[in-house]
Amino acid sequence: MSAVAAARRRPPAPKAALAVVLASAACAAGGAPFAYVPCQASHEVSVVDLETRRVAATIPVGRSPAGIAVAESAGKAYVTNADGRSVSVIDLATRKRTADLPAGSGPVGIAASPDGRRVYVADWYGNALLVFDTRDDRQVATVPVGHAPAGVAVSPDGARVFVAERDDDSVAVVDADKLAVVDHLATGEHPFALGVSPDGRALLALNVVSNDVDVFELPAGRARARIAVGLAPYGVAFDGTRAYVTNQHAASVSVIDLAAGKRLADWPTADYPEGIAVAGDRLVVVSWMEDCVQLLALADGRRQACVDVGRNPRGFGQFLSSR
Amino acid sequence: MRRVVLKALGALALAAVVADAAAHGPTRQKVSEEIAIDAPPQAVWDRIKNFDAIKDWHPAIKSSPATEGNTVGSRRTLTLDGGGTVLEELEGWSDADRKYNYRMKDPGPIPVSNYTSTIEVKPGPGDKGSLVVWRGAFYRAYPNNDPPPDKNDEAAIKAVTGIYKAGLENLKKLAEAK
Question: Is B16 in CB contact (< 8 Å) with chain A?
Fold first, then answer.
């Protein structure tokens, strides 16, 4: 920020110009300024401007939206409507719902491939992973998986899709080319949310009943650590070296050192924290009970603000967008 | 013989755990009720703080013995005025924060599943008043799509709202009695 201000004050010397370029690159990579948060009781997505800390738009979607995958390169966001048995498509440019796609009998978890070409949806009642092509928003495959599939995550190279099989205490590993399950990883009790570290080397499974996090080495899928966290871990986000896990029943975020496999600290949050993301130097935490989106300093967890949104906000998935 | 009985008990306990954590409906619901009471927070907390004391302030609960007092893991069995029992387990208890939280292990006749709750006494409004906040998060009783009317989201919300309102109103009456 100060580099930008300095550059504005005087003619851009080469060094200052470089600083501007670096600052804007950092902004594009980690400082996505909008959070698209599905609100399950008010059947809408609240778009929070993280700079002004205000709701910039409210987008009506299907019944009981829970999960979201922003696919920036496709220019769209996809929202699972748990009671609507559908996925709503949002055009990021107009912030309007453009379609509702039939999506099994209980769509919850959702993730987009890194290239934005596909969206993967877990069907909670159908015990399947539904695959959509984002070019025409058609469903192209149904991959049978285990019981009560919940969270979905994709490896950074797009080759593997991971699905939490909540009631089987395992994670299904799906080959994205073959569109078939090629492995199952055993977890603690009732894995719900999943996350892959940005370097693609670690898969985290959050076990909502046994209150711990399994860390698997990728691509092999070898179990590396099981880390105790707070009550009911529910959402995960990453920065370079750390993972941040919301503990729904403890009103806290556990900070995890990924290399050491160690829990470093617990930071207090608003009640029932769920979806979480890293945006620049802040953590964005969705508070289901308080109906707000909380901002915490990434450095020390200091609480900055809680922005009021719709009712029962979830933010289950990748909910940040640059527009 | 003893071994067989132990084994059977173990199987029962396991069955209870499995039932408690089984699949649930797609949409978690919440109820948050609060009431202002004209009495100091400590006095109000003293009335409700013991996990087994809910029978003393909730009009719909006849008895509520707990297995381990206010220790995390303690289980209380509520016998309801209208019939039926509910089993709840303490998950957190803080005298300093004047709050405790618990989970239903068996909801009995209450049409909910995966229910967790927190009750808390806060200071205010005014100099010596209290605000009691009772919050619950739960799913409906019916775990699949197309629930019958007595096991749908509305039925669950109505039941929990009724329990909270009745309890808080009676607590206010007791705490404000001269």
Answer: no
ipTM confidence: 0.80
Contact A82 B91 (CB under 8 A): no
CATH of A24-321 given 3.40.50.300, 2.130.10.10, 2.40.10.270, 3.30.1360.120:
2.130.10.10
Q: Measured between beta carbons, which residues in chain A are less than 8 angstroms from residue B135?
A: 271, 289
Mean pLDDT of chain B: 89
B27 touches chain A (CB under 8 A): yes
Q: Is residue B125 reached through a cis peptide bond, with omega within 30 degrees of 0 on the bond before it?
A: yes
Nearest 5°: phi and psi at B55? -65, -25
Q: Are strands A34-39 and A320-321 parallel, antiparallel or unpaired?
A: antiparallel
- Say which of A147, A148, A289 has its CB closest to residue B30: A289
Q: At A93, phi and psi to the nearest 5? A: -70, -40
pTM (two decimals): 0.86
pLDDT for position B128: 84
Are A135 and A151 spatial neighbours (Cβ–Cβ below 8 Å)? Answer: no
Q: A85 contacts in B (CB within 8 Å)?
A: 145
Contact predicate B133/B32, CB 8 Å: yes
Q: Which helix (H) or strand (E) holds B11?
A: helix B2-20
- Nearest residue to A78 (alpha-carbon basis) of A63, A89, A92: A89
Helix extents (H) in chain A: 2-9, 14-30
Question: A277-298, pLDDT tens digit by residue?
Answer: 999 999 999 999 999 999 999 9
Spans of all domains in chain A: 24-321
Above pLDDT 70, what percent of chain A? 90
Q: In chain A, what residues touch B116 (CB-CB under 8 Å)?
A: 249
**Res B25: pLDDT:** 74
Bridge partners of residue A77, in order along the sequence: A70, A90
* The pLDDT of residue A3 is above 90: no
Contacts of B21 in chain A (CB under 8 A): 189-190, 209
Query: How many angstroms separate the CA atoms of A246 and A86, rounded?
Result: 27
Nearest-by-CA chain B residue for A289: B30
Which strand (E) or helix (H) includes residue A285? strand A282-287
Residues 90-119 of B with CB under 8 A from A: 91-92, 101, 116, 118
